[in-house]
Amino acid sequence: MNYRTEKDLLGELNVPADAYYGIHAQRAVVNFSLTGEKTAPALIKALAMVKKACCRANSDLGFLEQGITHAIEQACDRIIAGDFADQFPVDALQGGAGTSTNMNVNEVIANLAIESLGRGKGDYAMVHPLAHVNMHQSTNDTYPTALKVALIYGVRSLSAAIAGLQGAVQEKEKAFADIVKMGRTELQDAVPMTLGAEFSAYADALARDRWRTFKCEERLRFVNIGGTAVGTGLTAPQSYIFLVIEKLREITGLGLSRGENAVDQTANADCLVEVSAILKAHACTLIKMANDLRLSHYLGEIQLPPVQQGSSIMPGKINPVITEAAMQAGMKVIANDALVSDAITRSTGQIVEFLPLAAHALLGSIDLLTRTNSMVASHVAGITADSASCGAAIKKSPSIVTAFLPAIGYERAQELVREFHAANRSDFYTFLEEKLGKELVEKTLSAATLTALGYKLSEPMGIK
């Protein structure tokens, strides 16, 4: 392999000759051989947007000449488009509050710009990663700003994915509206309800998650770009500080706003803890719903679509693997929330030094949840109901007597259950028809009655 030699504060280092990154990224690759997972592509693209905004602001104020400006912007656009993804080798976890990722992006932009101007990689006298690409910036304002940009795009995509799952669940709510089944509490028969009503609970929980996720953008839109190292804007012209946020709004299309107190925005990241908690709340919804679905499948009330063979030793076994995968995804998000909380808690002074861990966890959770929602939505679309199985469970369960309390009272209901057990009967529904009459039983256990939100006092309630 051919190399070029670059210099920094610590001395010289060989960098692969064909690499667009430089000495800072190369040192980080050596220093941070940790997870094997690279900085999230979404964060890299967002950083390129930030760099493009800074370049435009500096150009408009006369700090960059037109040729260099065009070359830097063109390089940023190529990164934003997803090109050169292999040129960002730095591990997601790194010391320095994201400095290595910031420098990796600076170097790739610089070398792409240099090439477009007809010179060779590493000729930083023409376009320098720090003097030109990072002009009037610090990792401490570009990295947090880019993270918020990436997160806003992420929560928008996630909100749309949740809406897709919500829609799939609502379709089943309608389809199953007239199927009466046993409701269960404490894993025991409780009172009768409809399968549609059960799915309505999932749909409403998802609706709340969708709204909360969508509203995360409000928590994330205040950024500290222009604050440089500690939020005071030291070394940056005031005109640049006010202009760069305008440029970033234009480039991202997002309703970003410069934080009124950039020292606060640089030193504190409590908004990330709040967003992470909302992602965790959605993970809890997914786990609950997925677990319920596999339980209903086991009880025979619904049939989950068979998607793969379930066992290497049991030939006929098919497992509820999609629901199990969704539950594991939710567990991972819950674990990531703990990482975000810990990372932000350990911030000191005027910096959030463990932001790379929080970024990796948050962006990972958003991506995982987005994929999970899409996976589960496709699976839910294929769910079918077994009305016969639901009906059989209703017929044999003495718990359905609760529905008759307004008509017969508690004592009479308790007496009927004792009689049923004493007679060693197995079909409680038929038993009730014999004791109370077919008309009352059918009306009381109809889907319309069970979902009518109680009964009206003016209604005749049958016998006492």
TrEMBL record:
<keyword id="KW-0456">Lyase</keyword>
<dbReference type="InterPro" id="IPR051546">
    <property type="entry name" value="Aspartate_Ammonia-Lyase"/>
</dbReference>
<dbReference type="InterPro" id="IPR024083">
    <property type="entry name" value="Fumarase/histidase_N"/>
</dbReference>
<dbReference type="InterPro" id="IPR022761">
    <property type="entry name" value="Fumarate_lyase_N"/>
</dbReference>
<dbReference type="InterPro" id="IPR000362">
    <property type="entry name" value="Fumarate_lyase_fam"/>
</dbReference>
<dbReference type="GO" id="GO:0008797">
    <property type="term" value="F:aspartate ammonia-lyase activity"/>
</dbReference>
<dbReference type="InterPro" id="IPR020557">
    <property type="entry name" value="Fumarate_lyase_CS"/>
</dbReference>
<dbReference type="GO" id="GO:0005829">
    <property type="term" value="C:cytosol"/>
</dbReference>
<feature type="domain" description="Fumarate lyase N-terminal">
    <location>
        <begin position="11"/>
        <end position="334"/>
    </location>
</feature>
<dbReference type="Pfam" id="PF00206">
    <property type="entry name" value="Lyase_1"/>
</dbReference>
<dbReference type="GO" id="GO:0006531">
    <property type="term" value="P:aspartate metabolic process"/>
</dbReference>
<dbReference type="InterPro" id="IPR008948">
    <property type="entry name" value="L-Aspartase-like"/>
</dbReference>
<protein>
    <submittedName>
        <fullName>Aspartate ammonia-lyase</fullName>
    </submittedName>
</protein>
